[in-house]
Amino acid sequence: MPLRIHFTVEDLARTRIADGPAPCIELTTAARQLQERSHLVRLGAWRHRTLSALHPASRMVFALMPRRGRVTEFLSGANGSTPAELVEQIRSTPRSRLRSSLEQTAQHEALPAWAHRLPDDPLLLRQLCDGLEHVAGHALVPHWQEVRAMAAADAAVRSRQMLSGGVETLLARINPRRIRWRAPVLEVAMISGLDADVHLAGQGMLLQPSVFAVEAPVVDLDAVPQPVLTYPVAQLQEGTATPLFASPPPGGDRAAQAVDVVGSVLGHTRAAVLSTIARHPGCSTQQLAVLVGIAKASASEHATTLRNAGLIATHRDRRTTAHIATPTGIAVLNAPSGRP
What we know:
Distance between the termini: 54 Å
Helix content: 40-55%
Order of helices and strands: EHEHHHHHHHHEEEEEEHHHHEEH
Largest sheet: 4 strands, mixed
Number of helices: 14
Structural class: alpha/beta
Shape: globular
Radius of gyration: 21 Å
């Protein structure tokens, strides 16, 4: 049986889409994924590359961000706007919050003995935070630009869903494999198999797209100022699984290689299309045509060429599209010899 979230009219009115990825959620779910063996196609290369670079101190982080179960609140409730801000915020967590967070977690599952000393041992807390920074630096920071682009493309898809059919259409399409809208109840199939009824009581929900929450939705009913439903970005729900965060080609500079490979296909208009997509992630083909000042058919043709060259990715939701620049496309724009 699913988790059943009951919406009132006030809840529907106050439900909104997050305007970008949440570093806290991405780091927490990334840490969980590093301890998993699933999703080998999408995450296998990233997982192997990241784990190979981590030092043993990372085990402290995984002990408080386990593969299954509760993540202690002082780690999961921080809200920095970047991975670096997130770690700094956790470093400055007041002792009283550390203590209450750990006590609350211990009521549900066992903690390692050293965790109970965190509020009174600044050196131990610093070691934990150094480990957290180390994990973030290898698992998340190198891919943050791509995470932001994928979240922006998802937000564009969801905004169009809301414009075309309202919040109820948005809820019905947000993750059809695991989330079903049966007005006025949102049924969420949780990995834990949680079977319960929840009433939002006018708070509404924040709908938070995630890249590392590859398949299953995550619900945080205690989040402030309103409950949060985390779901996979649109790209992860489309067609055949493809690898995320592909490593740079060996033996050379990514930007220089990208310019060599695609230099022959970039003309003035095509370069303008690529630059426009990079500056307006998630734009539709119609929006792209207006922004560049070309016909929609021409915009579609240029986007197809750029997509085939690996410079952009296109996500589709029924009759709408959302274009984003790939890391290779960004590298081409940023390379001195590749600037339009």
